[in-house]
Amino acid sequence: MGLASPNAALVVPVARGHRPLTGHGRQLNSDALTFMRHLRAYGPMVRISVGPRPVYVVNSPELIREVLATQARGFDKGAMFDTLRGPLGDGLTTSAADFHRRQRRLIQPGFHHERIERYTDIMSERSAVRAAAWRPGTVLDLVPEINRLTMDILLRTLFAADPGPELHAAVKDWLSVKYRSMKLALSPLQAWAERIPLLPRWRPPDGGPLDRLRAAQQRIIDDYRADGDDRGDLLSMLLLADGPDGSMTDAQVADELITLFLSGTGTISAAMAYAAHEVSRRPEVQTRLQDEVDTVLGERPPGFKDLRSLPYTRQILTETLRLYPVSWLSMRRTIQPLTLGGAQLPAGTDVFFSPYALHRDAELYEDPDRFAPERWTGGAPRPARGTYLPFGAGNRLCVGEEFAWAELTIALACFASRWQWAPAPGQPVRTLVGTVIRPDRVLVTLTPRRAGRP
Ligand code: HEM
User: Fold this and answer.
1) What are the pLDDT digits (tens) for 384-398?
2) How far apart are CA 47 and CA 26, in angstroms?
3) Which end of the chain has less neighbouring CB within 10 Å, N or C?
4) Nearest residue CA, atom 41 of ligand 1?
């Protein structure tokens, strides 16, 4: 500990374990989650490096708030998002500054309360169909099941009518390409390649799947434009959205669709899979969940109006996203010189923070590694300001947050009303670390809860 940053007015400690060429690359690539947790011991801010690139890691809720909200205009999104721009285009996740503000204003209405109400019917119906396909007594890996469900829900929310096999195939193809954005953002080799022009740099894989996805989307956009109707789905919202700076071009709509495919599926799948995993291991939690679901729903499927009447279901999900905030590492890069926590950061400085490490800090949460839904008893969760950030904060707060809570609550309630599930013997669940954290598999055995159903 203790080397001073050359540019800092304040001495920012440098984390131990720095190596000459790789910086802290070894720790970041071998066990980034544990490394991020260790960094909290250095105080509000600590310096690490990815190869030659210095990175300031902010730990305190106050400084995280400065980055995400108070000084947000001094940052863009940085390392990981530079590599995502190739495969995602200029959608909400990757866009910056005024263009981002404009797009956000246009897209936000698609996620308003009244629209979510319509989407919950789809969420409920599709969760019931998925759960009805399971067979009693079998060992099932819930991970692929949940992946199918979240994609099914998103496609039906985006497109009121089935978009057809061409789009299904194109999305599947495109999602199977590995863009490795987080790996590259943490790669010393990539950081050196950015500095030394002669070194080979990572290039996005061949554009084939992306081009095919864009072409399939364009055909659907053409159909929608031809009649100009509002079909009640997200695509209609994107096409009809209008603001002081006009509406979106087809290419912009296409980029936003691609962004939603990526942001609206893997994140929810991971959260749902972790929730199912934790519930499977805790019979007392599962029984309380079933009691709540039976009392509120009886035999009927969950809907929008039930969301507020399922507080324990919500507590389970809140606790799941505390212990497993799927966006485990957030990144920003300064676009102008600024002072953060007393340290002077030049333009182009990388700043990271880890919701995973924040949510597992023993000073903020008692017994932080324990899954304990009861810590959220008493209605809406009210953690101390800035200590619970699974959806980020400030101007880049997840636009799909309400959508995500609705889908997670409805799917979990639907599964619990039909099935009891217990862990199947086998390998322990492993966490895979990429752009999101996710379980490698969740093997369970299933028992139906009601005779004659599901
Ligand atoms: C459990 C589920 C989800 C989690 C944990 C999650 C988490 C996040 C986080 C942390 C951010 C901010 C990233 C940053 O500040 O760098 C974000 C942004 C975003 N999310 Fe989500 N998300 C989830 C579900 C969704 C869904 C369902 C959608 C859409 C259907 C969505 C769309 C987006 C978009 C478009 C952004 C970029 C917003 C902007 O920059 O203005 N997310 N999400």
Assistant:
1) 788 999 999 999 999
2) 15
3) N
4) 396
